[in-house]
Structures are given as C-alpha cells and as structure tokens.
Write a structure and sequence with these properties.
Layout (H helix, E strand, L loop, with lengths): L6 E7 L3 E8 L4 E8 L3 H4 L2 H16 L6 E8 L3 E2 L4 E2 L13 H9 L3 E5 H12 L8 E6 L3 E7 L2 E2 L32 H4 L1 H15 L4 H9 L4 H9 L3 H25 L3 E5 L7 H14 L2 H6 L1 E4 L6 H14 L2
Parallel strand pairs: 1-4, 4-7, 8-11, 11-12
Antiparallel strand pairs: 1-2, 2-3, 5-6, 8-9, 9-10
Length: 326
C-alpha cells in the first residue's frame, strides 16, 4: 500500500476505550479503529497494547513503520506536556506522575507527544473542524463532565501545571451549588454536563412536575436523560424549557466572561450535550450577547463542533505535525 504522504498516529486514551487513527498531514483520517483500555495491574498493559495495535494495523495495511512520523496522544487529567508525564489519571490505574511518553517511545521506537484529551479535542477542531483557520478559540466539551481547551495564537494554553482550560470547574453558583466530583460546589460542570442537566430536571420534577413529557418519561423508565430534556423543550414542555433556559443562562454567562478575558475568534461547543443543536446553541448565544463586553460580542462567534468523536485523534496528531513543523 503506497502512501501519498506520511501518516501520524493519533491516539485518544479513555478509561474504557482507546481510539486510534492514522492521520495524514492535512488532518484527514486515513484509517481509524478502537481497542479496549486495560487498566488492570496499575495500567501496566496500556502502552504495550497500543504498540501492539499499531504494529498489527501496519501489517494489515501493508505499511512500513518508517512511514509513520510519530504518535500524538490525548490522555485524561493534567499532563506535564514538556516531559510527557501524566500527573494524575484516576481511571487508568497509573500512579501519579506516570512517564507515559517514555514508556510509549520505548514500546514503539517512535516519537511520542502527550497532551490533555480536552486540549486535543480543541486542537482537532482548530486544525480541521469548526475552528479551521482560527488561531484563537475556546473549545468546551459538554459530556458526562465538562472539559475545555483554550488556544491562543495557534497554540494550546496549558498554564503552570497543565490545568489551564478547566472550564467545567469555573464556579457558576458561589453558594448553595451542587457538589462537584472535584470537591468544590457550584461548578459549571454540575449544571451544564449531561449529569447536571438530568439532576436539575429531576429537582424541578420533584417541585413542580406531576404532568408533562418529562414526568411521563420518568414514570415510564424510572429515569430521564439530557436528550429527553431537550426533546421535551423542543415540544414546548414548560418544565423542560425552564431547565434548558437555566443551563443556557449559566453556560452563556461563563462563556461571556471567558471571552471577555481572551477575546477568541470562536467558541466551539462539543460533546454529547452539544448534539441538542440549535435549541441549546441559540439560547446560549442570546445569554452570551447579554453578558459579553461590546467589542467581544461583535468579534466572537459560538458554533457547534463538527468532528464529533474524531476531534481527539485529529488534535493528538496535530501535536506531531506542530512539533515537526510540517
């Protein structure tokens, strides 16, 4: 199999699944696949399994390892980018300060660059997604939790210990807010994550909900999802509309303050919750407009992510492209 140009291996390491892709130097995926993340034995097998998966795929496709420029990887938790060390990753079994770059380079004999997974998603959207061509953008991933990545002048903002861009842990409710997994209360994550949306909806149902779409769903299934909330709001369910309005208020308010600080060209909303589409996006834009400083309001747009689950592997591959200045 002849390559038109060399490939970069993009890896998106998750607690249960690891996504891998061969990405060309234009940020396009040539081939992608997944493997199980084996976090047993303090994550001892993770790098070995990734190395084996790459070797097997090269054999399957009839490609030589010399055609690979390197491996970029997004990993959960704070990362020491310079050293390629994972400072803390609770779901992977590794001890703190795990030397991931060193281990994977030993296993693969390839150059390895490591970055936080949410930062990789932001880099992916900048390189070949919703933010293509933008050099200043903020990416917010709204999923089970809320992650973020900040890009200034075309490069990721990491902060002193790799914890920059933790947008989910901006305090949205200073007192009386819900408990967050991080140990604080009132974090944006407790409101605008899928988990937060469901929590708010259930609280509203306890207070006000004896009828309506959500009440029926809860009675029928014993639970509701964030998707149920947005579906109900689209059908003008009063209670669901109130929940969406609260979520959009807090997200729009926080994004306006981030934009007032950074003045990005674009804010990209990704993650499962963003699939709600315009019913969420339009309300967030409305609240953002109310709270953004006038010159910021005129120059910062908010858009939905376009790469979906591919953002992480594409952004991880960008780490190698940028390092080699291709």
């Amino acid at each position: 199999m002849k390559l038109e140009n060399q490939w970069i291996v993009g890896v998106d390491l998750g607690g249960t699944t690891t996504k891998l892709a061969f990405v060309n130097t234009n940020g396009e995926i040539a081939h992608k696949w997944e493997i199980h993340t084996d976090n047993s034995d303090e994550g001892l097998n993770i790098t070995t399994n990734i190395a084996k998966a790459i070797d097997e795929k090269l054999v399957e496709l009839g490609i030589s390892k010399k055609d690979l420029l390197g491996i970029g990887m997004g990993a959960p938790g704070p990362v020491n980018y310079e050293k390629g060390v994972i400072i803390n990753a609770v779901n992977l079994g590794w001890k703190d300060h795990y030397p991931l770059k060193e281990r994977l380079e030993t296993e693969t004999a390839l150059l390895v660059m490591i970055e936080n997974d949410a930062n990789c998603a932001a880099l992916g959207e900048m390189w070949n997604g919703a933010g293509k061509g933008a050099k200043n953008l903020v990416c917010v991933t709204l999923g089970t939790g809320v992650g973020g990545g900040v890009i200034a002048n075309g490069d990721i903002v990491r902060g002193i210990n790799g914890a920059a861009g933790e947008i989910g842990h901006i305090t949205a409710i200073p007192s009386g807010g819900a408990q967050c997994n991080c140990g604080k209360t009132g974090c944006l994550e407790t409101i605008t994550s899928a988990t937060g949306i469901v929590r708010i909806a259930k609280e509203e149902l306890v207070k006000n909900g004896t009828n309506g779409f959500l009440a029926e769903k809860l009675a029928e299934n014993g639970t509701i999802s964030a998707k149920d909330v947005f579906d109900a709001a689209r059908n003008n369910d009063t209670l669901a509309s109130k929940v969406v309005d609260e979520v959009a208020f807090h997200l729009g308010f926080v994004l306006a303050n981030i934009a007032n600080t950074l003045n990005p060209e674009l804010i990209v909303l990704g993650g499962g919750v963003s699939r709600a589409g315009t019913i969420l996006l339009n309300q967030v834009k409305e609240k953002f407009t109310k709270f953004a400083f006038s010159p910021v309001k005129e120059s910062t747009d908010i858009a939905l992510a376009t790469l979906g689950n591919d953002a992480g592997v594409i952004g991880a591959a960008w780490l190698i492209k940028n390092h080699k200045k291709i």
